[in-house]
Amino acid sequence: MYGIDETHDASLRSWVDSANEAQTDFPIQNLPIGVFRRAGSQDTFRPGVAIGDQVVDLLAARDAGVLKGEAAEALQGCESGELNRFMAQGRAARLALRHALSAALRSGSPQQAALQPCLLRQADVEHALPCRVGDYTDFYTGIHHATAVGKLFRPDNPLLPNYKWVPIGYHGRSSSLGVSGQVFVRPQGQTKGAGDTPEFGPSKRLDYELEVGAFIGTGNPLGTPVGMEQAEDHLFGLVLLNDWSARDLQAWEYQPLGPFLAKNFASTISPWIVTMEALAPFRAPWTRAEGDPQPLPYLDSPANRRQGAVDMALEVWLRTPAMAAAGQPAERLMQSNFRDAYWSLAQMVAHHSVNGCNLQPGDLLGSGTQSGPEEGQGGSLLELTHGGQKPVRLANGETRTFLADGDTVILRAHCQRDGFRRIGFGDCAGTVLPAGKR
Questions:
Q1: Predicted confidence (pLDDT) at residue 19 exceeds the cutoff of 90
Q2: pLDDT for 165-196, tens place per residue?
Q3: Mind giving me the DSSP string for 218-249?
Q4: Which of 39, 100, 200, 433 is an S-S bond match for 126, by CB 3.0 to 4.6 Å?
Q5: Cα–Cα distance between 294 and 292 in angstroms, integer?
Q6: With contact defined as beta carbons under 8 Å apart, do 27 and 14 qualify?
Q7: Are residues 239 and 319 in the same domain?
Q8: Which residues pair with 339 in a beta bridge?
Q9: CA-CA distance, 69 to 50, in Å (whole number)?
């Protein structure tokens, strides 16, 4: 899969001082990519890389001669503020850019003087979606979430028979995807009323879902499946994904065809894509519990069993309007780990394309809600409150069964392993407005 090289060396330090802080999400070993512009401007978005509390303007670095050869050529076609052409070039282009930036940003680099003017403070920029997302598919790989939710409706049989055999997914809506900082109005629609007569109005059971998003890099031609041995070659990198859900709308509408208005109003991603190369030190074996069925041959490979999982700590934080008014920080609600996903990234790609579906650069795959196996590790309020029966009590005395207007939900994640630098993803934040407000 992805090799560990000198860009992962834990002893590397940057002349960008903030990149050397122990708890930064963006040390020189990370170098995630996104698009940005100066906050409040009408400038065209530009490709950039996060380093400490700074952003490297990649086009400026290219124009200054810091990025040359393959690294400079990799950026061709990204001047419009979309990374799709870069993503389509595959691993070689990512490696060329990663190695060039690592060399230019490390302490003692002779390129510091030329690159320094190409940096801006992250506090002074704003982001957009990093690429044109043609299609968005949401999977259901979190077995602990699937089990917990299944118990609410089918206590004696929480998992349906197909769950352990097939990576379940559905096609979502890409037009309502937004980047961290997204503000959206409370959705409205039909909910179950008395008997089988519906009511119409704003959702009363608005929820978040803690997910990981995987961006496709190189695509595959229509009619040509991607095998497990090549599946990770088609992945570009990962983001955090909050797939907001209106649980009451969902309960009324999801049969027989699945989610619709309950899911199409907003989905939020973190702005920086952490590349698959940056994640190489944090891969882990993909395993199945004893007694569970082994995957069908098209979903199996030695490489996937050896390092198909990603050891990635996940967190959900909540900041209510009362907290904000009192100047209080957000409060952490839970923790889990992406390592516990029942299906791997490679299996998601292989299954999605096995019937010849043509994935394209910039397509987004959602992991489904990533809950942990223990009580209190639910990746949604639906789980944490046992379907709304046991409200979550916050430190300031407030309670929540589902989200209130004005609530801000923040997803955070990091990867950590002895012998390597900790890397993170930055915040994935979204705020709920009252129905009808903009």
A1: yes
A2: 999 999 999 999 999 999 999 999 999 998 88
A3: S---TT-PPPHHHHGGGEEEEEEEE--EEHHH
A4: 39
A5: 6
A6: yes
A7: yes
A8: none
A9: 22
**Residues 100 and 67: beta-carbon distance below 8 Å:** yes
- The mean pLDDT value for 122-146 works out to 97
Residue 438, in any domain of the structure: no
Catalytic residue positions, numbered: 145
Question: In 3-state terms, what secondary structure has residue 93?
Answer: helix
Report pTM. Answer: 0.97
- Considering only CA atoms, give the Rg of the chain: 22
Query: In this structure, are 325 and 416 located in the same domain?
Result: yes
Residue spans of alpha helices (H) in 259-405:
302-307, 321-325, 345-353, 381-384
What percent of the chain is predicted at pLDDT more than 70?
A: 99
pLDDT of residue 1: 63
Q: Residue 109 maps to which CATH number?
A: 2.30.30.230
Quote the CA–CA distance of 142 and 5 in Å, as a whole number.
Answer: 31
- For the segment 328-349, the average pLDDT, to the nearest whole number, is 98
Q: Quick one: tokens of 331? A: 């409060």
Give the pair of three-digit tokens for residue 122: 């992250």
* CA gap 164, 288 in Å, rounded: 10
In sequence order, what are the residues at sequence separation of 6 or more whose Cβ sits closer than 8 angstroms to the Cβ of residue 343?
A: 139, 141, 167, 299, 351
Contact 380, 152 (CB under 8 A): no
